[in-house]
Design goal:
Length: 477
């Protein structure tokens, strides 16, 4: 019975095991298919992400290369300074140089001999008309004056009695005439003695300033010896000589501007007082006298002055700095910044006033004109303006029309150094000299340097160095 039971149990267990094995096998196949499916998804996503990463890496690589190229281009570009051409007013001037003079300046001479016993006047003293400047010893002249006065009064009494007696016919006409002549003689002597006594007091002939004193206290002076110089500083005057071709543009009452080296940056106003009606046949010029207003008392006679007379004004015209002109050519040319490149432009200039130049043709408002570093530039060379946000790689024409662009350029002399090898060309140096010496300030400084170093005139290296120095000073203003 036991065996039967076992057999029965085996029969029961065996089918159960077989059924379990079937179930397990099915589940395994499902699990395997699911794992294969997940593996496919993971493989697909891996390939997608890997491709995107490669694209991003390629983009980053290209960006790095582009930035490197731009940085390389910027590093090779020549640094310059530029300003935008703008509109404004500019005037035409006649400019002449002269020395300032006082309206009146005289030397006071002594009219009598004597010793100086008082000397209240000193150089620089402001005096009024009639103020005592010096007193001479009057003792001897005073005695002579008293003697002549007594004689005069005596002869006057005799003459008056003779006149009364002549009317009554008590004396002859001859006696009356003798008394009259004696009276007139003594009167003249008295007046002369009185005048001589007055001359011992040296007085100011007009309001002014004592500019020089030639005597000392206790000194004995002789007749016609100079004692003082006095000048009237109100107003001061400037006398210029205008060529006959320009004299028609000058008229009385015309305004003028005066500058002096001793007061840099200050302009003084003046007005044309007189225009000579004749032209000097030798010089071909006519004298023009200008009265100068100096309320601040900063001008002195003898100062070297530049006189500018306004003859015409242009309103709302295009203006650029004069220092932007290219000096190595006879033409009026400038370089402008456009698309990161230097472009040479021919100009038609108009009025020139100080550091400004009117442009009639060749530029438009907003064009960036190179004002420093243009020496040595050539058409198409890459240039850059330090501080300008755009670079050569992505700059556009819009950049060239920026309304404000006055940027200081570090190292702006590099271009000048590159052009030094060609700067000693005789023709180029000659043209530069002609253009630079048109500036009165540079011309005056050149004359000073010649006095100190005569070799400057014939030494090309020294001459070029001088013009470079002057150009640098103009650029740094």
């Amino acid at each position: 019975m036991h065996d039967l039971i076992l057999e029965q149990d085996d029969d029961i267990i065996t089918p159960a095991i077989s059924s379990h094995q079937k179930i397990t096998s099915n589940n395994s196949r499902r699990l395997m298919r699911y794992c294969v499916y997940l593996s496919g998804i993971f493989l697909f996503l891996s390939l997608v992400f890997t491709g995107c990463g490669d694209d991003q890496a390629d983009n980053n690589s290209r960006g790095i290369r582009n930035r490197t190229n731009m940085d390389s281009n910027n590093a090779s570009a020549i640094p310059v300074q530029a300003v935008a051409a703008k509109r404004g007013d500019i005037s035409s001037f006649l400019m002449q140089t002269t020395t300032i003079e006082a309206e009146r300046q005289v030397d006071i001479m002594t009219k009598v001999s004597g010793q100086v016993v008082k000397l209240p006047a000193e150089e620089g003293l402001h005096v009024k008309n009639g103020d005592l400047l010096a007193q001479l010893d009057e003792a001897e002249l005073k005695i002579n004056y008293m003697r002549s006065k007594v004689t005069y009064e005596t002869d006057k009494s005799v003459y008056e009695r003779s006149k009364e007696m002549l009317e009554k016919t008590f004396i002859a006409t001859e006696d009356y005439e003798a008394a009259r002549l004696q009276y007139e003689s003594s009167k003249s002597a008295y007046e002369a003695a009185k005048l001589q006594l007055e001359y011992t007091s040296v007085r100011a002939p007009f309001d002014g300033v004592v500019t020089a004193r030639y005597i000392e206290l206790g000194q004995r002076v002789n007749v016609n010896q100079p004692l003082f110089s006095i000048a009237d500083f109100n107003p001061l005057r400037a006398k210029i000589y205008v060529p006959e071709k320009d004299i028609g543009r000058i008229y009385e009452g015309q305004g003028a501007t005066i500058t002096v080296e001793a007061q840099p940056g200050i302009e003084f106003k003046g007005i044309v007082k007189m225009v000579s009606p004749v032209v000097d046949p030798e010089s071909g010029t006519s004298k023009v006298t200008i009265d100068i207003t100096d309320d601040r008392g900063k001008l002195k006679p003898g100062m070297f002055a530049s006189v500018f007379i306004t003859t015409e004004t242009h309103k709302n015209t295009l203006i650029i700095p004069k220092r932007s002109l290219v000096l190595e050519t006879d033409l009026d040319q400038v370089y402008i910044y456009r698309n990161g490149m230097a472009h040479k432009v021919n100009l038609k200039p108009g009025f020139s006033s100080g550091d400004d130049l009117e442009i009639l043709e060749g530029l438009q408002e907003g064009d960036l004109v190179v004002t420093a570093g243009q020496d040595g530039l050539r058409e198409g060379l890459p240039i850059r303006i330090p501080g300008l946000e755009t670079t050569m790689a992505n700059s556009t024409d819009k950049t060239a029309n920026s309304p404000t662009m006055a940027i200081n350029v570090p190292g702006q002399n590099h271009s000048s150094e590159r052009s030094d090898n060609s700067s000693l060309d005789p023709e180029r140096l000659k043209r530069m000299e002609e253009r630079m010496l048109q500036n009165p300030e540079i011309k005056k400084e050149y004359a000073k340097r010649l006095k100190k170093d005569p070799d400057l005139k014939n030494n090309p290296e020294k001459k070029m160095a001088f013009f470079r120095e002057m150009q640098q000073k103009m650029q740094n203003r």
